[in-house]
Structure prediction request, 407 residues.
Amino acid sequence: MKIVHTADWHIGKILHRHDLTEDISLFFDWMIQFLLEQKVDLLLVSGDVFDLANPANKDVALYYKTLLRLSALRIKVIITGGNHDSISLLEAPAGLLNTLDIHVIGGAKEDISEEIIPCYNPDGSLGCVVLAVPFLRDKDLRASLPADQAYDKTKMTEAGVRYHYEKLVNHCISTYGDEVAIIAMGHLMMKGAVTSDSEREIHVGNLDGLVADIVPDSIDYMALGHIHKPQKVQNHAHIRYSGSPIFLDFSERNYEKKVIVLNVKGKKDIQIVPSKIPVSRDMLRFSGDLESVKTQLNNFKNEKQLCAFIELDVVEDSFNILKVQELEEWREKTNSDTYKILKSRISFSTEGSNTSTNSFIAINKSINELSPLDIFRQKLDESKIDTEISTSLTEAYMVLLEELNHL
Ligand SMILES: [Mn+2]
Prediction:
């Protein structure tokens, strides 16, 4: 059985007021072709289908159009909800999508057997069983743990996640026996994962992430979402993030975007082959003094299908307000069909660099480039309160944020 693992599509993502719809559409075109050529039987999407809990109608339409193309290929599809997704939005058409062999698990189920999906080979034999675990919210984790034990927040998250997977594995083995390959999905933050600037933080009380031993031994492959850089987790070849298929932020510009192909021959017999996704848009950062940044931009030739997104990081020796103005004016009149400057900043390396760094934030870092958490942390830094209190305040703030995000 051939499986493709992807995640973090973030349909509807807007980066500095620029819609990334063309990027994700080109990925869908490529993916459909790839699934066909590779004769894939099953597609797994591990969360963050949409960027927002209330996506625009055009983004929902693109999602359905893509599902329809997948169903025309007669590929089984399993989609789980991520921390960005609305459970009810994903699950509303679940009954209808089931008839197309598309299975959507938006949020944790009370009846855990609904998270267990058997997948059959073209000859009708059982190829693998998928544990379709969506992003587990704090209330799911609390609900799944024995009520008579007290846990601190970190332990609670870890114990809750571990317990959730153990329950599923036991249920799966008692139904399908212990010889079938078990593929688990998850939308989690694992310890040691290399992050970018575009993941929204999750799991309050477990900021560092989870240890790999929350994954039961009987799981043969763990298809993870949430982190946007493709990677193995804590050196386990079978626990992986596929990463997002497109660049969602400048901090991801040097990543190779991938889907993961699994060739499942039997239990503990899975061949894992990451496959590179072609880049349709460059995201570049040009840095140096103003003159050198101008030269770099003038010499730039776009070789990709979509116009490049450019970030300028100008560093001048000493503070000079004229340079700030020059950058602004030049940026305004610089226009091209082959690139767009999305972001620019200027800083000064000598002479009271602290104050000039702050003033650069004031001048160039607009409020919509900062996340609410960035602003909160900046405020905490300014008030110079001790670390322990600021950690609890940050956690409390994240609880509020998470509740707001899921309203
Ligand atoms: Mn994500």
Observations:
- The pocket of manganese (II) ion is lined by residues 8, 48, 82, 84, 199, 226 (CB under 6 Å).
- Residues 198 and 362 are 22 Å apart (CA to CA).
